[in-house]
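Chapter summary example.
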Amino acid sequence: MTENTNWDLDRYFYSWLDDPSLTSDIAQILPLTHAFAEKYSAILPTLSDPEKILTFYHEYDALLSQITRPSYYLFYRSALNTQDTEIQKKQGEVEAIFVEVGNLLLFISQAWKTMGKEKILALAENPILAGIQNDLVRTADMLQYILSEKEEYVLNAKSRPLALANELRDNLAGSYEFTMTIDGEEKKLTEEEVRTYRQHEERSVRKEAYDSLRRTYGTKQNQITLGNIYTSILKNWSSEIQIRGYKNILAQRNIGEQLDDTVVQTLLQEVSSAYPLYHRYLKKKASLLGINDFSIWDVNAPVGKMNTNYNFDEAFDLHLSVMKDFDDEFYEYSLAMRNEGRIDAFPRMGKQSGAFASYRKDAESFVLLNFNGKLRDVSIVSHELGHAIHGHLSQAQEGAVYDSALSLAETASIFSEMLLGAKIKTLISQEEYEAYLDERLSDIFATIFRQVQYVLFEQDVHTRIYDGGELTYKELNLLYREHQKNLYWDAMIFDVDAKDESTWSMIPHIFHTPFYCYSYAFGNILVFSLYNKYKADPNFKENYKNILRAGGSLPPAELLKKYDIDIASKEFYQAGIREVEKLVEAFEKIEG
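The structure predicted for these 592 residues follows.
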């Protein structure tokens, strides 16, 4: 049906696991790292010449780019087929090598520690090092959490079992087979296909989709396994913050993101205080659907009727037209992503569920999708390509400050979705727009309110483990239900008893990147501000692009302050929530 809907990994990496180039590159990882360590381990603590510091940074970036190439290739191969044991075996071999790499490079953090905070901050003020200033500042701020070399060696050695725990979760979830009875016929489906049925017009089909997910995730065997995997991750996180001396369970994430604890807590407080807005939306939705016993499987039910389904060509062309209207560079890069084989579009058995964009310094971006033809899938196309564009624009930065903070990582993705939404509104009927408004609100509540609910659940369970407690999967189920009840209150009936609430185990982010989910909420609220500035003044587009180009070269608060955005103020979050309320008010005016 379409062309260029699969990754062309041969073009960018290797032909397969037995490619001699892959074997050679893996064999070179340790020798290259040894050579780098031999060159710098003795002299780095004494370096004071900014030119030599900059050379060190450039050579370190070059080393990482070269030695991580096999890892990226294996990660992409694994995402396409999570059940391939040969890929898993090769990944394990490379991960074992990188434990040794980590040990060889421990001298870097110890060198900074020897150099001391004052000297590092003085270097940060040197004009020659302006391009890496924020990394030097961040390094200086992190010195107090760096342990002795021997202690760091031990922590690095135990990092591999943690990585294996995360892999086990992905491999386990990737092995699941889902069945649904549709029109009297039992069908085997991927997880992504089952999730799509949660938006089906027929209530019985939506219920069957939820039941299908629970039949698999909710078995005693899977819950015991997923519960043990998750509590292992919780315990590792807690032990590390205790060993390193972080002051609270969120501090490790917040310091790494260069966000004050108060900023994150303000976000969580303002959004959770606005939960009644979600209740209003759900109650109106129940009224429009004519459902008196509105349940969890009705949350994503369509209101009205969207007459349009999209094939991938149509979805991608719509995204391109939006980008063309906005900015030629965004358009050209999106087009190149597809033409050059860097989008993998369709679901298949064994493929990783969900969607992601992967990008790094001096390398091409890749986007993974599981496209099913719904309007939400069109939004996901724009969302993930927004990430890829962000990675492209950030190439202007030095490697050390290439990656933006997680709090800014969702900026381009959500902004692209907002541009798409404005375009869609002009292409559909009033009846279809009402259905689209419902879908838009559903996504907003999922990416602001529900993500905050996830983080508050994480805070709860991390704190209990940190305080010396133990949690079984049944206790995780009960705690997750408590946070669900805060979010949904009396607007919805739950489909299972609290003791069987396994939904937490379906959220990959809480396993892979604790507290990542607040970045979605922050990103949505930030984009409301940026988009309103763009609507008021189209010339703001260049400022927006500069925010993306900045990567991690400035702390988020400092970067956004340049464009009159104060993320420390309650008013910033309240203004974003007010934009959501405007959409709810418009939704409430729909006549049933």
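To summarize the output: Residues 148 and 310 are 56 Å apart (CA to CA).
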